[in-house]
Amino acid sequence: MDTSKKPPSQGEKAASDGRAGKLQRSGVAEAHVRVEQDGGPSDEQIVQSLKEGLSTLDRMFPSTSPTASWFEQQVAATTKKQRSKLLSDLLKLWLGALVLLYLLYVTATAQPIAFTLLQAAALVAPLAWLLLRKQVDSHE
After folding, report:
1. What stretches pass through the bilayer (predicted)?
2. Is 53 helix (H, G, I), strand (E, B) or coil?
């Protein structure tokens, strides 16, 4: 074992002197050495300054969190709005269904032949669409 010390490289000298922020290893410059610049603020000073600024902002613009009753009012208002929308949608659905049933009844009683043709078209059209779609899909 060789107990003699090797002389420090230029990068190690600069890092140990505190004048450079770069250490050279294997020819590649790395900025892992923390060296404070002359007259520059330290990390602790920067953190303290940021904390003071944030506390000043908190004093200038205080934030208040809403109360539980406000949340309960919001939930109640939203529930009421959703319930009224549901009832409106159900009413529209039932009215649409009644109109369709009335039209089918009028067609069946006034013109039975037209009603029969309408029923045949309602049965044949979806089947034709399915068959044609399968043929188009098989050609692709």
Report:
1. 90-107, 113-132
2. helix
Q: What is the mean pLDDT of residues 63-67?
A: 85
3-state class (DSSP) for residue 30: strand
Cα dihedral 8, 14, 17, 19, rounded to 10, equals 180
Distance, CA of 81 to CA of 86 (rounded, Å): 9
Query: Taking Cα atoms as reference points, which of 136, 140, 104, 105 lies closest to residue 122?
Result: 104
pLDDT at 11 over 60: no
Q: What is the rounded distance in angstroms from the CA atom of residue 8 to the CA atom of residue 11? A: 8
Rounded to two decimals, the pTM is 0.41
* Residue boundaries of the structural domains of the chain: 10-60, 84-139
